From TrEMBL:
Residues 8-35, 246-255 have a biased composition (Basic and acidic residues). This is Retrotransposon gag domain-containing protein. InterPro entries: Retrotrans_gag_dom. Residues 1-67, 246-275 are annotated as: Disordered. The lineage of its organism: Eukaryota, Viridiplantae, Streptophyta, Embryophyta, Tracheophyta. It comes from Vitis vinifera. Signal peptide: none annotated. Transmembrane segments: none annotated. Residues 118-213 form the Retrotransposon gag domain. Residues 265-274 have a biased composition (Low complexity).
Length: 336
């Protein structure tokens, strides 16, 4: 297993080295071509025809681009690991695949006549079946890249998909997106509705209309008609709102902690207050017992705490305790 891994890496390194060598060869040829063109201006008008023919022959051998074979183009193409396309899941995914494929082919300097074959090599599953059916309708061997793009987009990004994108653009709002996310989506969908935003001012107005009210209300008085300036101001307003909300949250946390501290001390304070209220107190000079002692009242006839003297069963009998002057005074206060 390890030997196979090392062998695979070695083959890939050899392929990369081959590509680098080809690029270095192209650069050398370009430099030599420039030098020849510069020398042509300084060449004397006189000279033998044989020398001129030799010069032209030399230049042709240096400037003519070598024909890239299918195998060489395939090796260069597969080194970058191009993406495949299976015909799903959406029209947007199909367009992204086509745009990425175009960038790869142009970046690798793949000849025009090789591009369609390499791109369709990456079609799999449903997309591959579709392409096989197209081969019975079109001469794909000589098809240009522009024609392939037209056919591909007609299949996977037709008028129905374009209309859906236009409708999405018309109803696009910021919602929970950040300003950067909203601007990115706005720009991506705007190319399907170029007729709606043909002017810079109209584009800015539509972008502003979709912003959250908290941001939009601070931009409307500025009457900005430049799209780039409007986006920049919206970012600044969003940043200011975020900072203000953070400050409010920090203040709210401090107040919450303060209330929690007060509530934790409350029961102790209430306990001390209740203990103070339960203490017996006397009015100065009156000799009357305060209401706080009412919970400790007893019958002064028999000493029971279950009833008062007026309900005592021993009242009027000889077992009743003799009343003293203090008892009569207490009756005037307690037995009411």
């Amino acid at each position: 297993m390890a030997g196979r891994t090392r062998g695979g890496r070695s083959e890939r390194n050899e392929e990369l080295e081959t590509v680098r060598e080809e690029l270095r060869e192209v650069r050398r040829e370009l430099r030599e071509t420039v030098e020849l063109m510069r020398g042509q201006g300084s060449r004397r008008a006189g000279g033998t025809q044989g020398h001129e023919d030799s010069g032209h022959s030399h230049r042709r051998s240096r400037t003519e681009r070598p024909v890239m074979s299918q195998m060489e183009a395939m090796k260069r193409f597969m080194v970058v690991q191009p993406p495949s396309f299976n015909g799903e899941p959406s029209a947007e995914a199909a367009e992204h695949w086509l745009r990425r494929m175009r960038r790869i082919l142009v970046g690798l300097d793949i000849p025009e006549e090789r591009r369609v074959g390499l791109a369709t090599y990456m079609l799999v599953d449903k997309a591959d079946f579709w392409w096989e059916s197209m081969k019975r309708v079109y001469d794909t061997e000589v098809m240009t890249w522009e024609e392939f793009e037209r056919i591909f987009l007609g299949k996977y990004f037709g008028e129905v998909a374009k209309h859906a994108k236009r409708m999405e653009f018309e109803h696009l709002i910021q919602g929970t997106m950040s300003v950067l996310e909203y601007e990115s989506r706005f720009s991506e969908l705007s190319r399907f509705a170029l007729g709606m935003i043909s002017e810079e001012g109209e584009k800015a107005r539509r972008f502003q209309q979709g912003l959250r009210p908290a941001i939009r209300n601070r931009l409307v008085p500025l009457a900005i008609r430049d799209y780039s300036e409007l986006v920049k101001r919206a970012l600044l307003v969003e940043q200011d709102i975020d900072e203000t909300n953070q400050i409010r949250e920090q203040k709210g946390d401090r107040k919450g902690k303060q209330r929690m501290g007060e509530s934790s001390q409350g029961p102790q304070q209430r306990q001390r207050t209740q203990q103070f209220e339960r203490r017996p107190s006397f009015y100065a000079g009156g000799g009357q017992i305060a209401q706080g002692v009412a919970a400790n009242r007893v019958c002064y006839g028999c000493g029971s705490g279950d009833h008062l003297w007026r309900a005592c069963p021993l009242r009027g009998t000889q077992q009743a305790r003799p009343q003293s002057q203090g008892s009569s005074q207490q009756q005037s206060v307690v037995s009411f």
